[in-house]
Amino acid sequence: MAASTDIYNSAQSQPATELRIVLIGGRYNDLRSGKSSAGNFILGQNVFDTSRRTAQSEAKQQEVFGRRVTVVDTPGWWWGWSREETPKLDQIEIQNSVHLCPPGPHVFLLVIPVDSNVCQEFKSSLKQHLELFNADVFSHTIVLITAVDPYSDEVNEFTLKRIPAMQRILQQCGDRKHFFNLSNKEDRDQVKKLLEKIETLITNNGFRHCSVDRSQGETLRKEMRDLTERASKRFDQVQKQRKKLKELIEGRSKSH
């Protein structure tokens, strides 16, 4: 399989079908959503770093089952947190994700582990964070339910039906869902079925991708640069203060 590349450096020829996917989701306590792992599973390559929290939105591209598939991984938010409690830079990175797969994503995959303790606060948190995108985001969303244990779809379905808050989230997303057993990476049929569901969604949406305001992309990039520069200046100031304090302490020690 050809090596995965950043989207803007891809030199692959375009197959008949192109799919653009943005992974979204959060974390609960110490339980991560598994977005990066799901992205690697879809692309069939370990292109997203799963050893650390995703801090920046990142796009990778690969040919999968004859389709040119672009996957964008994004920073997660804490489930239960309001959008105002999510760091501004994370909000900007989440918003910017749709600009990394021009002209816009076909689908958002909302990644939720099957054993998450989904509560009512999840639904409110989800709604607020999805407002970072356009109003039609729910019509472009599939819930991707991940598991690391080899549960059957029947067991997963039974588990979901016992969680009212999850049922309400699924209703918001048109009851579109797919199960991923991340422990069975050899089962590529899971990926094939997901891509088929995405294509069905695209057809039902009249072959429209999620609309993206290009001018917003420039504004977001400027905001990111400004925030990064301010953070860098604050860091430099702290380092200078620490250096002065250290010199002061060392000077007093020598005088005694």
UniProtKB/TrEMBL annotation:
Domain AIG1-type G: 20-218
Nucleotide-binding among keywords: yes
SUPFAM superfamilies in the record: P-loop containing nucleoside triphosphate hydrolases
Highest taxon, organism lineage: Eukaryota
Keywords noted in UniProt: GTP-binding, Nucleotide-binding
GO MF term list: GTP binding
Membership in a protein family: Belongs to the TRAFAC class TrmE-Era-EngA-EngB-Septin-like GTPase superfamily. AIG1/Toc34/Toc159-like paraseptin GTPase family. IAN subfamily.
PANTHER family: GTPASE IMAP FAMILY MEMBER 4-LIKE-RELATED, GTPASE, IMAP FAMILY MEMBER-RELATED
Protein name: AIG1-type G domain-containing protein
